[in-house]
Design brief:
The complex is a heterodimer of chains A (163) and B (146).
Chain A: H1 2-38, H2 41-49, H3 63-72, H4 74-87, H5 92-104, H6 108-117, H7 122-160
Helix pairs in contact in A: 1-6, 2-3, 3-4, 3-5, 4-5, 5-7, 6-7
Chain B: H1 10-42, H2 45-58, H3 68-76, H4 79-88, H5 93-105, H6 109-119, H7 123-144
Classes of the chains: A mainly alpha (163), B mainly alpha (146).
Chain lengths: 163, 146
Protein backbone atom coordinates (compact mmCIF):
# COMPACT_ATOMS: atom_id res chain seq x y z
CA UNK A 1 0.00 0.00 0.00
CA UNK A 2 2.82 2.39 0.86
CA UNK A 3 4.28 1.51 -2.55
CA UNK A 4 1.20 2.81 -4.30
CA UNK A 5 1.14 5.93 -2.14
CA UNK A 6 4.73 6.71 -3.04
CA UNK A 7 3.98 6.25 -6.76
CA UNK A 8 1.02 8.62 -6.50
CA UNK A 9 3.15 11.13 -4.63
CA UNK A 10 5.93 10.85 -7.21
CA UNK A 11 3.49 11.44 -10.09
CA UNK A 12 1.65 14.27 -8.34
CA UNK A 13 4.80 16.19 -7.44
CA UNK A 14 6.53 15.52 -10.76
CA UNK A 15 3.60 16.51 -12.95
CA UNK A 16 2.88 19.61 -10.87
CA UNK A 17 6.48 20.80 -11.13
CA UNK A 18 6.54 20.21 -14.90
CA UNK A 19 3.32 22.11 -15.50
CA UNK A 20 4.49 24.95 -13.26
CA UNK A 21 7.81 25.15 -15.11
CA UNK A 22 5.98 25.40 -18.45
CA UNK A 23 3.46 27.94 -17.11
CA UNK A 24 6.31 30.24 -16.03
CA UNK A 25 7.45 30.44 -19.63
CA UNK A 26 4.18 30.16 -21.56
CA UNK A 27 2.14 32.81 -19.71
CA UNK A 28 4.65 35.65 -20.21
CA UNK A 29 5.10 34.52 -23.84
CA UNK A 30 1.36 34.74 -24.53
CA UNK A 31 1.22 38.23 -22.97
CA UNK A 32 4.12 39.23 -25.18
CA UNK A 33 2.36 37.83 -28.27
CA UNK A 34 -0.81 39.78 -27.48
CA UNK A 35 1.28 42.94 -27.14
CA UNK A 36 2.86 42.21 -30.53
CA UNK A 37 -0.60 41.81 -32.06
CA UNK A 38 -2.18 44.89 -30.50
CA UNK A 39 0.79 47.18 -31.06
CA UNK A 40 0.61 46.25 -34.75
CA UNK A 41 4.14 44.83 -34.56
CA UNK A 42 3.04 41.38 -35.70
CA UNK A 43 1.57 42.90 -38.84
CA UNK A 44 4.77 44.88 -39.44
CA UNK A 45 6.86 41.72 -39.04
CA UNK A 46 4.58 39.87 -41.47
CA UNK A 47 4.82 42.69 -44.01
CA UNK A 48 8.59 42.86 -43.57
CA UNK A 49 9.13 39.16 -44.25
CA UNK A 50 6.43 38.55 -46.81
CA UNK A 51 8.51 39.65 -49.85
CA UNK A 52 10.79 36.67 -49.08
CA UNK A 53 8.16 34.34 -50.56
CA UNK A 54 9.25 35.53 -54.00
CA UNK A 55 11.98 32.89 -53.67
CA UNK A 56 9.18 30.37 -54.03
CA UNK A 57 7.68 32.26 -56.95
CA UNK A 58 4.69 33.22 -54.83
CA UNK A 59 2.67 36.43 -54.88
CA UNK A 60 3.83 38.99 -52.34
CA UNK A 61 0.38 38.86 -50.68
CA UNK A 62 0.91 35.16 -49.89
CA UNK A 63 3.69 36.00 -47.45
CA UNK A 64 1.35 37.57 -44.92
CA UNK A 65 -0.73 34.48 -44.02
CA UNK A 66 2.45 32.40 -44.09
CA UNK A 67 4.29 34.56 -41.55
CA UNK A 68 1.18 34.82 -39.34
CA UNK A 69 0.81 31.03 -39.38
CA UNK A 70 4.47 30.49 -38.55
CA UNK A 71 4.22 32.80 -35.55
CA UNK A 72 0.69 32.22 -34.24
CA UNK A 73 -0.24 28.71 -35.31
CA UNK A 74 -2.02 26.44 -37.71
CA UNK A 75 -5.66 26.86 -36.72
CA UNK A 76 -5.45 30.66 -36.43
CA UNK A 77 -3.24 30.65 -39.51
CA UNK A 78 -5.82 28.64 -41.48
CA UNK A 79 -8.38 31.37 -40.81
CA UNK A 80 -6.00 34.01 -42.16
CA UNK A 81 -5.17 31.76 -45.13
CA UNK A 82 -8.82 31.33 -46.10
CA UNK A 83 -9.44 35.05 -45.74
CA UNK A 84 -6.38 36.07 -47.80
CA UNK A 85 -7.20 33.43 -50.39
CA UNK A 86 -10.58 35.11 -50.84
CA UNK A 87 -9.51 38.75 -50.61
CA UNK A 88 -6.17 38.63 -52.42
CA UNK A 89 -7.18 35.87 -54.83
CA UNK A 90 -4.17 33.73 -53.99
CA UNK A 91 -3.35 31.09 -56.60
CA UNK A 92 -3.79 27.42 -55.66
CA UNK A 93 -0.06 26.90 -56.01
CA UNK A 94 0.61 29.52 -53.31
CA UNK A 95 -2.02 28.03 -51.01
CA UNK A 96 -0.46 24.60 -51.27
CA UNK A 97 3.04 25.90 -50.61
CA UNK A 98 1.90 27.99 -47.63
CA UNK A 99 0.21 24.95 -46.14
CA UNK A 100 3.21 22.68 -46.75
CA UNK A 101 5.42 25.17 -44.98
CA UNK A 102 2.96 25.52 -42.11
CA UNK A 103 2.39 21.81 -41.48
CA UNK A 104 6.16 21.58 -40.96
CA UNK A 105 6.52 24.78 -38.93
CA UNK A 106 3.70 26.57 -37.12
CA UNK A 107 3.29 28.25 -33.74
CA UNK A 108 7.07 28.07 -33.60
CA UNK A 109 7.56 30.33 -30.58
CA UNK A 110 4.94 28.66 -28.42
CA UNK A 111 6.14 25.12 -29.23
CA UNK A 112 9.78 26.09 -28.78
CA UNK A 113 9.08 27.79 -25.45
CA UNK A 114 7.22 24.76 -24.09
CA UNK A 115 9.86 22.28 -25.23
CA UNK A 116 12.60 24.56 -23.91
CA UNK A 117 10.86 24.61 -20.56
CA UNK A 118 11.23 20.85 -20.27
CA UNK A 119 14.90 20.94 -21.26
CA UNK A 120 15.33 20.95 -25.04
CA UNK A 121 17.70 23.33 -26.85
CA UNK A 122 15.46 26.18 -28.02
CA UNK A 123 17.87 27.73 -30.52
CA UNK A 124 18.50 24.42 -32.21
CA UNK A 125 14.81 23.55 -32.29
CA UNK A 126 13.72 26.87 -33.77
CA UNK A 127 16.46 27.15 -36.38
CA UNK A 128 16.19 23.53 -37.53
CA UNK A 129 12.47 23.72 -37.88
CA UNK A 130 12.42 26.99 -39.84
CA UNK A 131 15.33 26.04 -42.12
CA UNK A 132 13.95 22.58 -42.88
CA UNK A 133 10.47 23.93 -43.60
CA UNK A 134 11.92 26.68 -45.82
CA UNK A 135 14.12 24.23 -47.73
CA UNK A 136 11.35 21.68 -48.11
CA UNK A 137 8.91 24.31 -49.38
CA UNK A 138 11.52 25.36 -51.94
CA UNK A 139 11.79 21.76 -53.15
CA UNK A 140 8.00 21.52 -53.29
CA UNK A 141 7.79 24.74 -55.33
CA UNK A 142 10.30 23.36 -57.85
CA UNK A 143 8.44 20.07 -57.95
CA UNK A 144 5.11 21.74 -58.67
CA UNK A 145 6.69 23.86 -61.44
CA UNK A 146 8.44 20.81 -62.84
CA UNK A 147 5.17 18.95 -63.06
CA UNK A 148 3.45 21.85 -64.76
CA UNK A 149 6.28 22.21 -67.23
CA UNK A 150 6.32 18.49 -67.90
CA UNK A 151 2.64 18.57 -68.76
CA UNK A 152 2.89 21.50 -71.15
CA UNK A 153 6.11 20.30 -72.74
CA UNK A 154 5.17 16.64 -72.94
CA UNK A 155 4.63 16.77 -76.64
CA UNK A 156 7.79 18.59 -77.67
CA UNK A 157 9.84 16.49 -75.31
CA UNK A 158 8.69 13.34 -77.04
CA UNK A 159 10.15 14.75 -80.25
CA UNK A 160 13.29 16.33 -78.80
CA UNK A 161 14.42 13.79 -76.29
CA UNK A 162 17.01 11.71 -78.06
CA UNK A 163 18.33 9.93 -74.99
CA UNK B 1 -8.64 39.88 -37.49
CA UNK B 2 -11.46 42.38 -38.10
CA UNK B 3 -10.54 45.75 -39.45
CA UNK B 4 -11.13 47.46 -36.12
CA UNK B 5 -8.20 49.60 -35.04
CA UNK B 6 -6.19 47.76 -32.44
CA UNK B 7 -4.28 49.50 -29.70
CA UNK B 8 -2.38 48.61 -26.61
CA UNK B 9 -4.33 48.68 -23.35
CA UNK B 10 -4.73 46.86 -20.07
CA UNK B 11 -7.02 44.60 -22.07
CA UNK B 12 -4.03 43.42 -24.12
CA UNK B 13 -2.25 42.12 -21.04
CA UNK B 14 -5.48 40.61 -19.73
CA UNK B 15 -6.03 38.71 -22.98
CA UNK B 16 -2.43 37.51 -22.91
CA UNK B 17 -2.80 36.24 -19.35
CA UNK B 18 -6.03 34.44 -20.27
CA UNK B 19 -4.41 32.89 -23.36
CA UNK B 20 -1.41 31.80 -21.27
CA UNK B 21 -3.65 30.34 -18.58
CA UNK B 22 -5.64 28.54 -21.27
CA UNK B 23 -2.51 26.96 -22.78
CA UNK B 24 -1.38 25.97 -19.28
CA UNK B 25 -4.78 24.41 -18.55
CA UNK B 26 -4.93 22.54 -21.88
CA UNK B 27 -1.45 21.30 -21.17
CA UNK B 28 -2.05 20.38 -17.52
CA UNK B 29 -5.16 18.33 -18.22
CA UNK B 30 -3.16 16.13 -20.60
CA UNK B 31 0.30 16.20 -19.02
CA UNK B 32 -0.92 15.25 -15.52
CA UNK B 33 -2.88 12.08 -16.42
CA UNK B 34 -0.14 10.92 -18.82
CA UNK B 35 2.46 11.53 -16.14
CA UNK B 36 0.45 9.36 -13.72
CA UNK B 37 -0.03 6.56 -16.27
CA UNK B 38 3.65 6.49 -17.27
CA UNK B 39 4.78 6.62 -13.63
CA UNK B 40 2.55 3.63 -12.84
CA UNK B 41 3.84 1.77 -15.91
CA UNK B 42 7.39 2.40 -14.72
CA UNK B 43 6.61 0.21 -11.71
CA UNK B 44 5.20 -2.61 -13.84
CA UNK B 45 6.94 -4.82 -16.44
CA UNK B 46 4.99 -3.05 -19.21
CA UNK B 47 7.41 -0.14 -19.66
CA UNK B 48 10.33 -2.51 -19.75
CA UNK B 49 8.62 -4.64 -22.39
CA UNK B 50 7.95 -1.57 -24.55
CA UNK B 51 11.57 -0.53 -24.07
CA UNK B 52 12.92 -3.87 -25.27
CA UNK B 53 10.48 -4.07 -28.18
CA UNK B 54 11.33 -0.63 -29.58
CA UNK B 55 14.98 -0.28 -28.70
CA UNK B 56 16.30 -1.54 -32.09
CA UNK B 57 14.20 1.08 -33.92
CA UNK B 58 14.84 3.90 -31.46
CA UNK B 59 18.60 3.27 -31.52
CA UNK B 60 18.51 4.86 -34.97
CA UNK B 61 17.86 8.18 -33.21
CA UNK B 62 20.09 7.47 -30.23
CA UNK B 63 17.00 7.12 -28.06
CA UNK B 64 16.07 4.50 -25.47
CA UNK B 65 13.23 2.12 -26.45
CA UNK B 66 10.83 3.70 -23.98
CA UNK B 67 10.99 6.96 -25.94
CA UNK B 68 8.74 5.28 -28.51
CA UNK B 69 5.87 6.13 -26.12
CA UNK B 70 6.67 9.83 -26.57
CA UNK B 71 6.60 9.62 -30.37
CA UNK B 72 3.38 7.58 -30.44
CA UNK B 73 1.54 9.89 -28.04
CA UNK B 74 2.79 13.02 -29.80
CA UNK B 75 1.59 11.83 -33.19
CA UNK B 76 -1.65 10.13 -32.19
CA UNK B 77 -2.74 12.75 -29.64
CA UNK B 78 -0.73 15.97 -29.53
CA UNK B 79 2.44 17.69 -28.38
CA UNK B 80 1.16 18.02 -24.82
CA UNK B 81 0.69 14.25 -24.49
CA UNK B 82 4.26 13.77 -25.72
CA UNK B 83 5.47 16.30 -23.17
CA UNK B 84 3.65 14.43 -20.39
CA UNK B 85 5.51 11.27 -21.35
CA UNK B 86 8.85 13.05 -21.79
CA UNK B 87 8.86 14.68 -18.37
CA UNK B 88 7.91 11.44 -16.61
CA UNK B 89 10.55 9.30 -18.33
CA UNK B 90 13.65 11.06 -16.97
CA UNK B 91 15.52 11.51 -20.26
CA UNK B 92 18.85 13.26 -20.89
CA UNK B 93 19.32 16.70 -22.50
CA UNK B 94 20.30 15.12 -25.82
CA UNK B 95 17.36 12.71 -25.80
CA UNK B 96 14.90 15.52 -25.02
CA UNK B 97 16.34 17.73 -27.77
CA UNK B 98 16.26 14.98 -30.42
CA UNK B 99 12.70 14.02 -29.48
CA UNK B 100 11.62 17.68 -29.48
CA UNK B 101 13.02 18.30 -32.95
CA UNK B 102 11.40 15.11 -34.30
CA UNK B 103 8.08 16.00 -32.68
CA UNK B 104 8.12 19.61 -33.82
CA UNK B 105 8.02 18.38 -37.43
CA UNK B 106 5.48 15.66 -36.85
CA UNK B 107 2.72 15.77 -34.23
CA UNK B 108 -1.08 15.73 -33.79
CA UNK B 109 -1.44 13.93 -37.10
CA UNK B 110 -5.23 13.33 -37.02
CA UNK B 111 -6.14 16.97 -36.33
CA UNK B 112 -3.52 18.71 -38.42
CA UNK B 113 -3.85 16.41 -41.42
CA UNK B 114 -7.58 17.10 -41.48
CA UNK B 115 -6.78 20.82 -41.61
CA UNK B 116 -4.29 20.40 -44.47
CA UNK B 117 -6.83 18.28 -46.36
CA UNK B 118 -9.40 21.02 -45.96
CA UNK B 119 -7.03 23.40 -47.75
CA UNK B 120 -6.64 20.82 -50.51
CA UNK B 121 -3.39 18.94 -49.87
CA UNK B 122 -3.19 15.17 -50.07
CA UNK B 123 -3.18 13.58 -46.61
CA UNK B 124 -0.75 10.94 -47.81
CA UNK B 125 1.80 13.52 -48.98
CA UNK B 126 1.50 15.68 -45.88
CA UNK B 127 1.97 12.75 -43.50
CA UNK B 128 4.80 11.38 -45.64
CA UNK B 129 6.68 14.69 -45.62
CA UNK B 130 6.26 15.18 -41.89
CA UNK B 131 7.32 11.66 -40.93
CA UNK B 132 10.20 11.93 -43.40
CA UNK B 133 11.46 15.18 -41.85
CA UNK B 134 11.09 13.71 -38.35
CA UNK B 135 13.08 10.58 -39.19
CA UNK B 136 15.82 12.47 -41.07
CA UNK B 137 16.21 15.08 -38.33
CA UNK B 138 16.23 12.36 -35.66
CA UNK B 139 19.05 10.50 -37.39
CA UNK B 140 21.00 13.71 -38.11
CA UNK B 141 20.82 15.16 -34.61
CA UNK B 142 21.69 11.86 -33.00
CA UNK B 143 24.94 12.04 -34.96
CA UNK B 144 25.51 15.80 -34.48
CA UNK B 145 24.73 16.20 -30.80
CA UNK B 146 26.68 14.81 -27.94
Amino acid sequence: MSGIMSIIKEAAVGSFLSVRQIAFIVIPLMVFMEILKDAGILEKIANLFSPLVKIYGMKKESGFPLVIGIIIGLSYGAGVIFRSAREDKLPKRDLYLITYFLVCAHAVFEDTAILMAIGASGALLLSTRLLAAAFFTYLASRLIDGKARKLSAAESRMLDNER
Amino acid sequence: MQNTQKHLSADTVKRGLIAGADVTWQLARIVIPIYFIVTFLKHTPVLNAISILFSPLMRLFGLPGKAAIVLVLGNAVNLYAAIGAMVSLSLTYKEITVLSIMLSFCHSLPVETALAKKIGLSAFNVIGVRIGLAILSGIAFNLLLR
